[in-house]
Amino acid sequence: TGYLVLIAVMLIVRTYCDIWMIQNGTVIESAIIGRSRKDFKRYLFNFIAAMPAISLVNNFLKYGLNELKLCFRVRLTKYLYEEYLQAYTYYKMGNLDNRIANPDQLLTQDVEKFCNSVVDLYSNLSKPFLDIVLYIFKLTNAIGAQGPATMMAYLIVSGFFLTRLRRPIGRMTIAEQKYEGEYRFVNSRLITNSEEIAFYNGNLREKQTIHKTFHKLVEHLHNFILFRFSMGFIDTIIAKYLATVVGYLVVSRPFLNLAHPRHQKSTHSELLELHSSNYRINAGTEGLEQGQISADYDITTRERFDHVPLATPNGDILIRDLNFEVQSGANVLICGPNGCGKSSLFRVLGELWPLFGGCLTKPERGKLFYVPQRPYMTLGTLRDQVIYPDTVEDQRKKGISDQVLKEYLDNVQLGQILERESGWDSVQDWMDVLSGGEKQRMAMARLFYHKPQFAILDECTSAVSVDVEGYIYSHCRKVGITLFTVSHRKSLWKHHDFYLHMDGRGNYEFKKITEDTVEFGS
Prior knowledge:
ATP-binding, elongated, ABC1_TM_dom, transmembrane helix
């Protein structure tokens, strides 16, 4: 309430200041034209003396507006979070209610913009209203009531006309926020699922998705800019220049001009913002360049670690000297406690982590496929989930029909999903639509589509039943996919030829699985 009163008082005082400055400026100009040195000095010194007070009024007004925006934001944010974090509302909004696609944006950016708009609306409506009242009072005393009445009539008619023209702005602003939210969403998906996407080598597909989403945003912004250009042209003619003409016609004197010059925004803040953005972009570019790990690999049809240290990018050594070789066709089961280095081994194989020494012999990247425990479901159709990171054009170039894709789904006992989701071209949020087991089986169907020579299975069937899991592993051997499997299930030992056990203390054991091998796991 205190800030509302402060803003109201400052608006009234600033309006009186504006009127005083117009009157004082008029007499200064009259003194110059009349060559009256005495009057010129007098009114000029009056203006100089009033400058601190006028500046103080303007800054008190800005202070009150900014504090009021902050107060509104604090109160609204507290209220929304009180409702959002009550019971399971946050879960229902994110998982059961699809009316709000980005609740994080609603609770942060949208709240801030709403509070700013409400306070700006209060200020922008109050100031013109006060100006109108005081100017009408002054004009009525000077030239009678007919002139102000004519100007009010013009103001009402032109305001009604411009309001009708501005109607699409609200709809276009909502659409802009929607496209901005979608653009942020696809970028956050890339960050959240970066490791899975990197193993899938899906950077090109993700780039297409991001570019497509960004293109929709840019196209809308182009249309919005064109609309605002057209509106700005009409607005300037009607609200500024024609209003000036009407003022001239009404008062028939050149000293009164109701079209106040707009305050031009200082380019200083824009330069600072540009500098900040440039710094962030440069930092991001350097990070992207540094993230492109390069290493020399011996490309072949086998997997061989020759005196390779298994270490994290920051230098923590998990295994000092890793030596083993796997020929194509020999499946390897990798086991050990959490944190022993199983996932680290895969990251080195997938070229996500650097090679710190030794020699790694591995097939080229396209012949090595990774299936994580938490499969990544891309934005798009049901078909896209199977062929990812390929596109439909890539599928056609490979000569693979939709009927063959149906066979891949049948191989993982997921054929019924085609009818359930209304065909290949159905578009859903597949991360939410598919269950955990269905997503894991979809990832295995994706594996069969790409037919790599080697595949890394990182507990990718933990949510699949044992019988379906056994069928999938048998089919992998049938089609000639050599497997590196991380799993704690004893039922999978029979599908592998070697095991690599890491004890978590820097030691490992690589042996062939025989009838005498003691199986461990659950």
